């Protein structure tokens, strides 16, 4: 068996084009341009690259965006002041605080200071709570992207046994909450597995859909997967590779070569879940500008 590749780049581009069409309509019919504000603290190269990619995505779909950069030693009060400024700016419909923040700044306090109606990352406690009880909210971008990958690749999770490996607040917990809701595009039976399990394979071998989000390079191998399962690899890990031009390569949490011989469908790394994150951020921001998430 050789698995079908779930092409995250292609699906993300479909979503971007949908966002662009809706943005053009929103501008022409209501005179509203979706606005997204980025707050970047410090000079972490990865964070800078992520913000640049997100800014480029805004430009491609016709959004207004602004990036506020603060030095690594900036006090928490300066970050909170920016958050408050954007909370009250009518041109801004989404606010993204690039994590991680320097250690002198409390991520919890900064996220809690966000207007939850502009929290397009889906990290504010109100959005987390609404997600857990099945109410309309901004879903975190990577988990929402996983759901879209499943649906748009013809792998509806309804009635399937989904095993999520990992329990982070960014991916593991929210994707479990999304897929177990009694809603269209969800309604799955969900198991969360983590490092407390004595035998992870006992659970992974029973998964119709396996979602790996543990942050360990190629930890899930083909012999741990049920034949015919759908495998979604959320991991992004850099490993040394002397044969590579730059001395390293990017791999997922799943050992692709062995897993692709067992699974019916699988996401590659890179090119699977990764491109979906920005696409879903753009869609969340559009929905905020349209007022269709929190219409009250």
If you had to describe this structure to a student in words, what would you say it looks like?
The protein has about 300 residues and is α/β, with parallel strands linked by helices. It folds into two domains: about 30-115, 3-Layer(aba) Sandwich (Rossmann fold), CATH 3.40.50; about 140-275, NAD(P)-binding Rossmann-like Domain (Rossmann fold, 3-Layer(aba) Sandwich), CATH 3.40.50. It is built from ten helices and eleven strands. The protein has helices at about 10-30, 45-60, 75-85, 105-115, 125-130, 140-150, 170-180, 200-205, 255-260, 275-290; strands spanning about 5, 35-40, 65-70, 95, 160-165, 190-195, 210, 230-235, 235-240, 250, 265. The strands form three sheets. It has a six-stranded parallel sheet. Strand 9 and strand 10 (about 250) form a beta hairpin. The N and C termini lie far apart (about 50 Å). The mean pLDDT is about 95.
Radius of gyration: 19 Å
* CATH homology group of the largest domain: NAD(P)-binding Rossmann-like Domain
Give the strand order, joined by hyphens, for the main sheet.
1-11-8-7-5-6
Shape: globular
Give the H and E element order: EHEHEHEHHHEHEHEEEEHEH
Helical segment count: 10
Low-confidence stretches: none
Q: Which class of the largest domain in CATH terms?
A: Alpha Beta
Strand content: 15-25%
Q: Which fold name is given in CATH as the topology of the largest domain? A: Rossmann fold
Number of beta strands: 11
């Amino acid at each position: 068996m050789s698995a079908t590749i779930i092409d995250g780049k292609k699906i993300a581009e479909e979503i971007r084009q949908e966002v662009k069409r809706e943005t053009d309509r929103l501008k022409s019919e209501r005179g509203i341009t979706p606005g997204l504000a980025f707050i970047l603290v410090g000079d972490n190269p990865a964070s800078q690259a992520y913000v640049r990619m997100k800014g480029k995505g805004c430009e491609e779909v016709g959004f207004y965006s602004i990036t506020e950069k603060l030095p690594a030693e900036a006090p928490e009060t300066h970050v909170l002041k920016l958050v408050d400024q954007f909370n009250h700016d009518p041109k801004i419909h989404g606010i993204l605080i690039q994590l991680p923040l320097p250690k002198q700044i409390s991520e919890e306090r900064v996220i809690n200071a966000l207007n939850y109606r502009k929290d397009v990352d889906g990290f504010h406690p109100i959005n987390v709570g609404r997600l857990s009880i099945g109410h309309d909210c901004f879903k975190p971008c990577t988990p929402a992207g996983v759901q879209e990958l499943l649906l748009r690749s013809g792998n509806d999770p309804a009635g399937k046994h989904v095993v999520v490996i990992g329990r982070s607040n960014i991916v593991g917990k929210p994707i479990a909450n999304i897929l177990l809701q009694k809603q269209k595009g969800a309604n799955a039976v969900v198991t969360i597995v983590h490092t407390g399990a004595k035998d992870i394979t006992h659970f992974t071998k029973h998964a119709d859909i396996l979602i790996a989000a543990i942050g360990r390079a190629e930890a899930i191998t083909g012999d741990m997967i049920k034949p015919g399962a759908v495998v979604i690899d959320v991991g992004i890990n850099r490993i040394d590779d002397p044969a590579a031009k730059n001395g390293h390569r990017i791999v997922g949490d799943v050992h692709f070569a062995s897993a692709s011989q067992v699974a019916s469908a699988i996401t590659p790394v890179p090119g699977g879940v990764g491109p979906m994150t920005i696409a879903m951020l753009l869609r969340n921001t559009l929905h905020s500008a349209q007022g269709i998430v929190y219409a009250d």
